[in-house]
């Protein structure tokens, strides 16, 4: 027991602290490259047109009400989310071995999946990439896992994937370790394995009897193509591996604060589906009883309506804006003759770029240029626009020189 008045101050959550420092700064040229949210070229948050249209349609639908959803959420949502992830014609779906559970965004999906594995099945050890999204460790520990471990991922010298280190760490992992894998657009490095590298990773996971837990927070948002960004998950599932995948609809639908997520569970044997679903029902029941309706209904309406689905073009708009900011930034740094190589800015994928800037250089950018980014050198490419790209490039150039 610890008395409330002897409680120690918890450490700040870096990304929120940096975001607040940006908001509090009154400098006219300030730039926010910290928090992971999409911004338009005007630096504004964006409600996707198809989302706005669907919201208006739902608001006018007198048949809808605010009754509780079932514990596992809207079936129309979770099955559409599972199909979006695996492809509707994936053998795991056709054979009745895959299903989804609506969750509180991607974080909630990770939490439900982790708690199910730890408390219902007794898994203890989890591996996350070095580096990874800062919340993986906390979510898994709070879910009942007791053995946090890292696998090598990022080769800082060459700014690429450390495949050998990654495979060696998997080889040395004890049987039944859960391996957290970023489905695409790895956060924070923006560096994904190639198809051949994924094949090697899957091979070791299978041989060593490890349990793959995918985290898919950026499907479609990374390349602009839902199918392309789901390649790794679909490949693992096609090998017949038992696995789970947490899905977030925060980025690809711009529904950050509506907390729309899904956990897809893929089993080897169809007969396990009903008992697994019943145990997951108890996991959710004891955690938050049932999920909210608004965002799940929007996504379900869009995904289940071919005409609206086609209007989801906005995903491509977002991905393309990021790609053009990546090439624009690299081009400018090269033109300025900024020391170092900058090819990684365009070879990395998704929202983030791991710039390679040191903590001292980051401090310099914050203090002298009012450009806010994480200590690790991670920047959110969406914070760059046609209006501030020259300023950002010059600031990085002056900082590195
Ligand atoms: N996983 C990763 C890798 C992420 O980057 C994020 C969002 N920052 C999430 C999961 C979960 O986000 P949310 O809970 O907002 O869906």
UniProtKB/TrEMBL annotation:
Residue ranges of coiled coil: none
Presence of the UniProt keyword Flavoprotein in the record: no
Domain Aminotransferase class I/classII large: 29-396
Keyword Transferase attached: yes
Domain of life: Eukaryota
Alphabetical keyword list: Aminotransferase, Pyridoxal phosphate, Transferase
Similarity comment: family membership: Belongs to the class-I pyridoxal-phosphate-dependent aminotransferase family.
Subunit description: Homodimer.
Extra information: In eukaryotes there are cytoplasmic, mitochondrial and chloroplastic isozymes.
Name listed for the protein in its UniProt record: Aspartate aminotransferase
Originating species: Timema podura (Walking stick)
Full-protein positions shown: 469 to 869 of 873
